[in-house]
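Much of what follows relies on a compact textual record of a protein's fold. An example makes this concrete, so a full record is given next.
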Amino acid sequence: MKKYIALVLVVALASCKAKTVIAEAKATQEIPTKTVVENHYANKKDFKTLYIKASARYEDDKQSQNVTAEIKILKDEKILISIRVLGITMAKAMITPKEVKYYEKLGGKFFEGDYALLSKWLGTDLDYSKVQNMLIGQSLDDLTKGKYKTSIEDKLYKLETASAGIEKTFYFEASKFLIKKEEITQTAKNRSLQVAYPNHKDYPTMNLPAAFLIEAFNEEKKTTININYNTATFNEELSFPYSVPDGYDRILIE
């Protein structure tokens, strides 16, 4: 059951296909933090709706599963994710700034509540903006609101900060300052989240990740989710149908 829930909560035949994989550059010269942040946000994410078809693989210490995923985003308002196996919908999630809702067929369960459960599974505190940012390849945090130390590591620009027991690092390549990796660690709670972006693709509307890898560590348990974007369309009229089938049991989280 958990594999479908984790996939559906993080995560077309399309007329708009990627032009090419974006060429990246190595960081060789130190620059101010402000320059890194400004260049990262110069990659505009201007869209009204986004429709992605993806393939995904889930793994933990007990099981693994290959699935397909359909992701619909109405920017800053809602995200609908459908997980399918052999063309059959196994789970759905509706994510809004106020709540997370999902259901999954295996076990006939559904959940409606805040971000606490998703945050627990993925090893860091999440909200709507962070989930949306992760899907579109933007830094999880708003980097304009923090104070960061900048250095070069593995030919990437590294921004790091630590506060209230939470360590955060963000890595960027040196051409368009696309995000390559981000890590959030809460040592006292023995949990962390790592998101890596191997490469990005250029679309007429904006750039998007070609794929990304999530590694969540929670109390020595590791969950890995690989997501590959196959096609994407922008600014089309989309429907967001979501309803829990009759007879499902609600999951209650204390």
